[in-house]
Every structure is written in structure tokens, then in C-alpha cells.
Design a protein that fits this description.
Blueprint (H helix, E strand, L loop, with lengths): L1 H7 L6 E13 L2 E18 L2 E5 L3 E6 L2 E11 L2 E10 L2 E11 L3 H4 L3 E17 L2 E17 L6 E12 L1 E11 L2 E12 L2 E14 L2 E3 L3 E15 L5 E15 L3 H4 L4
Antiparallel strand pairs: 1-2, 2-3, 2-4, 3-5, 4-5, 5-6, 6-7, 7-8, 8-9, 9-10, 10-11, 11-12, 12-13, 13-15, 14-15, 15-16
Length: about 260
């Protein structure tokens, strides 16, 4: 059954188990020609290390291969969402509210080494499965984040979000990074389940990051503002920073500087 339900979204990545009752008419292999009623008593789906399950009995109707429900509770570790609306192979029209554990980012994004905290969500998700859009609001509470490309971890990060089409907009967001304070505004343009483009303004106050390059290690206290724009693969970083107690430690390969006799 989970494989059949995954087929509604156009993929077969899920595995799991479903308990319930269905009265359907049509052809099972052609969802777009099927209709009827479904009572879902319990469901559990697994994808990689992530387990998602329902929290209570839910009722669905199906017409022309599109599922409709007035309420279904979705549970994962430290996560609870209430979902209503319609879902089909070529249609997504859902209202979603609740709380999400940001540690899920470690499973969804390979470039996230550590994530914690909560995302409170009240949004509508629509469009097609391959190109979803969101409208609504959210709030990040007590988050921490460690990216694979940065040595320093962002902690105690909180802020208000708004969702507009395929963008996440940061409003009044702040946290601690590299021993100082960080304030962030701007937006992330999303594509599929990843970040397509970044447009962020970051204000730094007394941060002391360490940058490890092939040629040198760089350390210093930074104050000022930095902008980041573009895709992750070609991110442009510009800004106006004051550097205090800066230190550059070159990495010198002495064997290449001494000639052989």
C-alpha cells in the first residue's frame, strides 16, 4: 500500500505499512481513473533514516486519482503537523500547520552536518509535485546549524519567516555565531527540496570565525555587514567589515622551497 500511495506523488521511494479500509472503484494501476472512500486507521512510512506516521484515524475521499481529506495528523520525532486538502500525481493543494524538528535537515540535506531547534509552520502548499509553491508564515525557535563547509556553528538562532511562492523570506532573525552576534534578513529561493539561490544580508557584531584555506589559516574579530547572492555553487560575498586582531598563518611547504642538491 505505501508503494501505491507513493505513486500518487509520482515516485516509489517510500516503504512502510498501512492499516485501514477502502471502498474504491476503477483500476488500481490507473489512479486517475479511480474513485471512492478510504478510512486510514494507522500508517507508517520510512525513507532512509526518517520515519513518518499518522497520529489518529483519518478519512479520505478519492476522485479521478486525487485524494482529499479534511484533517490528517502527521508525526515524526519531535514533529507534529496537521494537514488538509488535496493530493494527486499532478496536483498538490494542502494546508499545513504545526511544529517541525529541524534535525530532519540532517536527513534531507547532505551539506548539513548538524541541525536542531523547531520550525513552527502555518502555510499552504500548492502546484505540481515537481514545482511546489508555498504561501504563509513560520518561525524558527532555538535553532543551531552546522554546515559541512564552515567550521563555526550557528546557535540560539530565532526569527520570523514568510513564504512567498518558491521563496523563504527571513524577517527579524538573529543568533550567535563564532563567539559573536549575527542578524540576518533576505530570502532563499527553493527548488525541489534544495536551495536554488541565496539573497541574504548579514550583520556581524564581534564574531571571531576561523577560515581554513589551502594556503593559510585566517582568524580575526569582525564587525560590519555582508551580502551573499547567487547559487550555492557560485555564491558572491560582498561587504564592509572592520577587522580587529586579525591573524594570518601561512601554510608553507618548505620542501618545495628548498632546492635539491
Amino acid at each position: 500500500a505505501p508503494g501505491l500511495i507513493a505513486g500518487l506523488a509520482g515516485h516509489k521511494r517510500y516503504r512502510g505499512e498501512v492499516t485501514g479500509r477502502a471502498e474504491l472503484s476503477g483500476r488500481l494501476v490507473y489512479w486517475e481513473r479511480s474513485g471512492g472512500k478510504i478510512r486510514l486507521d494507522e500508517a507508517r512510512f520510512m525513507q532512509d533514516d526518517l520515519t513518518i506516521e499518522t497520529g489518529a484515524r483519518s478519512d479520505f475521499s478519492m476522485l479521478h486519482g486525487v485524494l482529499r481529506t479534511s484533517r490528517v495528523s502527521v508525526l515524526a520525532p519531535r514533529t507534529r503537523l496537521v494537514v488538509s486538502g488535496r493530493l494527486g500525481a499532478r496536483l498538490v493543494d494542502l494546508d499545513v500547520s504545526g511544529r517541525v524538528d529541524l534535525a530532519l535537515a540532517e536527513t534531507l540535506f547532505g551539506w548539513v552536518d548538524h541541525a536542531a531547534g523547531s520550525l513552527v509552520l502555518d502555510a499552504s502548499i500548492g502546484g505540481k509535485a515537481e514545482r511546489l509553491t508555498m504561501l504563509g508564515t513560520g518561525r524558527i525557535e532555538g535553532a543551531s546549524l552546522q554546515l559541512s563547509t564552515f567550521e563555526n556553528r550557528l546557535t540560539r538562532f530565532s526569527g520570523d519567516l514568510s513564504f512567498s511562492q518558491s521563496s523563504v523570506i527571513f524577517e527579524r532573525s538573529s543568533g550567535q555565531w563564532a563567539g559573536g552576534q549575527l542578524q540576518l534578513t533576505g530570502s532563499l529561493a527553493l527548488k525541489d527540496v534544495g536551495i536554488d539561490r541565496i539573497r541574504l544580508a548579514v550583520k556581524l557584531d564581534g564574531v571571531r570565525p576561523r577560515f581554513t584555506l589551502d594556503s593559510a589559516d585566517i582568524l580575526g574579530t569582525l564587525d560590519g555587514e555582508v551580502s551573499m547572492t547567487g547559487p550555492l555553487s557560485k555564491l558572491a560575498v560582498r561587504g564592509d567589515l572592520d577587522v580587529r586582531r586579525g591573524r594570518i598563518t601561512p601554510k608553507i611547504d618548505w620542501s618545495k622551497m628548498v632546492g635539491s642538491s
